[in-house]
């Protein structure tokens, strides 16, 4: 706009910016006629008015070109899509971290109980072969019975320990917080705000 040549009543010309920046009623600097300049009248002169309107249209068209509406719409919704991706990635990472922690705890407990089982196995090595070998060492029925009683006692003890361990492992479980939870309660939702001035609490869910 500033570069437009404006025609003055005296026939001289000046740039639009020069004219507009002058105080109304100052002397013309472009000629020797010593006349006042009335800015409002000068810009209403048909030749000047047409030039100014034409320039205004050019400026508006340029602005429309830059702010291509389709591009704006695409950009806005691409942004939301991107935000959903990022949020999803963060949640997946959090879930994975927690999953690994939980599974580590399970593994630790499992190993603890396995080493408990191994101890009882070591202490109670009773097999059919050993049992026969021991009985063969005994020479009379009295001794054999005594050995058998001992073996039965050992076997009963072993069974008791095994049952204890079976009971123990049944006490462990993975507890889900809620089986039918809504993912949107954790993830978030796609919202729409009727009035932009209402602040952040007034978004309605888009279905
Ligand atoms: Zn003049």
Sequence stretches where pLDDT stays below 50 over 5 or more residues: none
Spell out which ligands are present: zinc ion
Strand order of the largest sheet: 1-2
Count the helices. How many?
Answer: 7
Largest sheet: 2 strands, antiparallel
State the end-to-end distance: 48 Å
Order of helices and strands: EEHHHHHHHEE
Instruction: Give the rounded overall mean pLDDT.
Output: 87
Give the strand tally. 4
Rounded to the nearest angstrom, the radius of gyration is 47 Å
> What percent strand?
5-15%
Main attributes?
two-stranded antiparallel ribbon, 207 residues, mainly alpha, 7 helices, single chain, 64% helix
Outline the structure in words.
The protein has helices at residues 16-21, 39-44, 46-66, 69-123, 128-137, 141-170, 183-187, and strands at residues 5-7, 13-15, 191-193, 203-205. A hairpin with a 5-residue loop joins strand 1 (5-7) and strand 2 (13-15). 64% of the residues lie in helices and 6% in strands. It is mainly alpha-helical and 207 residues long. Among the domains are: 5-66, no CATH class; 124-175. The mean pLDDT is 87. The protein has a two-stranded antiparallel sheet with strand order 1-2. The protein binds zinc ion. Residues 8, 10, 12, 28, 30-31, 33, 35 line the site of zinc ion (ZN). The site of zinc ion has 8 residues, from loops.
In short:
The protein is mainly alpha-helical and 207 residues long. The chain has helices at 16-21, 39-44, 46-66, 69-123, 128-137, 141-170, 183-187; strands at 5-7, 13-15, 191-193, 203-205. Among the domains are: 5-66, no CATH class; 124-175.
